[in-house]
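Box 3.1 A note on notation
Throughout this textbook, protein chains are presented in two layers. The first layer is the amino acid sequence; the second is a token string describing backbone geometry. Keep the layers aligned when reading.
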Amino acid sequence: MEMDMAIQSAIPVDFGAFFPAGAYMVGEVERVIEWTDDGQQAGQQHDKVTGKPVWTVRVIDADPNARKGQGEVSVKIVAAVEPTPPPEMPGLPFRPVLFDGLTVTPYVKEGGGRPRVAFSLRATDMKPAAPTKRGE
């Protein structure tokens, strides 16, 4: 039996299930820019459901088994005020991070040959994570 099912919204996912080896923020928190149909900047993007501003951070997935090209992802954070980055690790540009309210939205990405399934990550909050020691 064949069934057509379409996911109509983001899928909640546990942080530890998506980032089992942890995650590290790199760079800074940035505003997500809203663009007009004719390619002009129209201020900061706002979430369609909550109306709150959307921010983005670059994140390194600490999973050593992550496939090539999948070690860095962007996470969009829907928050009324700019999220505060966790502190950097001494001597490194990495910031151990946790995300609350993490969701994943799959979509089809066109171009570069055949279409493939990609995903968008969103969260409601970002907070520091305690760095873990190998072997724990």
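The chain has a mean pLDDT of 85. The CA atoms of residues 23 and 120 lie 16 Å apart.
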